[in-house]
Amino acid sequence: MNWEQLVAAFVGSGLGTTIVGLLFKQKIDRNLEIQKAFLDRASREHDRQVDTLAKLYEHLYKAQAFLELMSATARFEGERHEQYPGLFLDSLTSARDELLAGRLLIAPEVVRQCDALLKKLWSGRAELAYARDPMIVDVNQRAQFWDAARKTAYEDIPRLLQEIETSARAVIHGQETRLRA
Q1: pLDDT at 9
Q2: CB under 8 Å, gap of 24 or more: what pairs does 38-46 form?
Q3: Can you say whether residue 107 is alpha, beta or left, with left for phi > 0 and alpha for psi between -120 and 50 degrees?
Q4: 80 phi and psi, to 5 degrees?
Q5: What is the DSSP string of 7-58?
Q6: 30: exposed, middle or buried (Cβ count in 10 Å: 0-12, 13-18, 19+)
Q7: Separation of alpha carbons 169 and 167, rounded Å
């Protein structure tokens, strides 16, 4: 039996086909494991994004609600309005901390929107402080600060918060490619 006959018998017996099949299977299994690891990592990353966005939105929404309550002209009997500034600051601080912790996880557009909202919340708080400042004796100037604070609390901030909600929903539900900067 010569070399050529041995190779022909080896290939013809199916052993060669089996070895080639095992080599392909090994390569495919390796590629499949790499793909599974990638998908697992992406899934964990998405879960962290969703957690960050949900917590961030909750804190921002609470801060907006407390700013509205602080700038309200009417008060209900038994309402403890002196607690609102502290609750507002707690919500704002929590939102800032959540944004700092998750800044690299969420889409840049959402980060920009959150930054703008945080600035607007601080601006609304400052306007309220000026409106209540006893050093400002001009009644018209105080009224302007009250009006600016109410506009910020009831118009500007809800609009910005709605933009954040829309962008966050796009990230959460898998449409974030349009949000990448």
Answers
A1: 66
A2: 45/105
A3: beta
A4: -100, 75
A5: HHHHHHTTHHHHHHHHHHHHHHHHHHHHHHHHHHHHHHHHHHHHHHHHHHHH
A6: exposed
A7: 5
* Number of other CB atoms surrounding residue 78 within 10 Å: 5
pTM for this entry: 0.71
DSSP count for the chain of H helices, then E strands: 6, 0
Spatial contact of 179 and 171, defined as CB atoms under 8 Å apart: yes
Taking CA atoms, 108 is separated from 54, 105, 146, 181, in Å, by 16, 9, 33, 6
Supply 66's token pair.
């407390």
Phi and psi based region of residue 14 (left: phi greater than 0; alpha: psi -120 to 50; beta: remaining): left
Mean pLDDT, the chain, whole residue set = 83
Taking only the tens place, the pLDDT of each residue in 49-107 is 888 998 999 999 999 999 988 888 777 887 788 888 899 999 999 999 999 988 888 88
pLDDT at 141 exceeding the cut of 80: yes
Is it the case that residue 154 has pLDDT exceeding 70?
yes
